[in-house]
Design brief:
Layout lengths: L4 H23 L14 E10 L9 E7 L3 E2 L4 E2 L3 E7 L5 E7 L6 E12 L2 E11 L1 H4 L5 E7 L2 H12 L4 H10 L4 E7 L2 E8 L4 E6 L2 E7 L13
Parallel strand pairs: 1-9
Antiparallel strand pairs: 1-6, 2-5, 2-7, 3-4, 7-8, 10-11, 11-12, 12-13
Length: 229
Amino acid sequence: MSRSPSRTIAERAAGLALAGLLAAAAAWAGHPWRYPHAEGAAVRFEGSVSDAAGNPVAGVEVALEATTPRFDWRRFSPAQRTERRTTRTDERGRFVLDWAWDGAYRRFELAATLREQVGGRELARELARLEVSDRVATGTPVVAALVIDDAAGLARLRAFLAGLDSADELRVWREAGLPESIDRVLSPDSEEATWWYYSAGRVVRFRDGVQTAVETFPPVRPIGDEAAP
């Protein structure tokens, strides 16, 4: 006895639906689905940002990212929505963020980012990230400590931004962004700086903040994932 074609199609559709559900479950496995917060209730996220030695890091952005597990049935894949709340750390490296509870959001992360606007261009560099979904399930406040492993890199970035004080330097920064490397030569009567843009095949030379030369070369893939002066 032959099987009904329509039943075969229905079985295939059911199999696809089941596969979609399993994919969604796998994507969100391990995240709490029951939280002790009433809809609209205030949930506080607080804590600190420090370097690996325990020194507080002031003036960096801290973002709360809340994500939904909404499922995209058309593509049989997760299609999350994310809401963000941001603040900056105080002089002691402390932060406080408040979130009005919305039961649609199930995953919660805190991220520390160096975000600065200088000369009409923004620099944004993520420094640390921590998932706190399990802590949200225990109540409020949600306390977290974010640790920046590369404190030296952060210091170099801040020094670079603080040193952009000439018209030529600001123009090159606006046009090309963060150099992948900087060489400096100090002498009793001048300071020379060379900004390397390896991936663009370009080097810009300055003397006392005034551009003196631009040279090109075959682009080179920089060592490491990110540019760092």
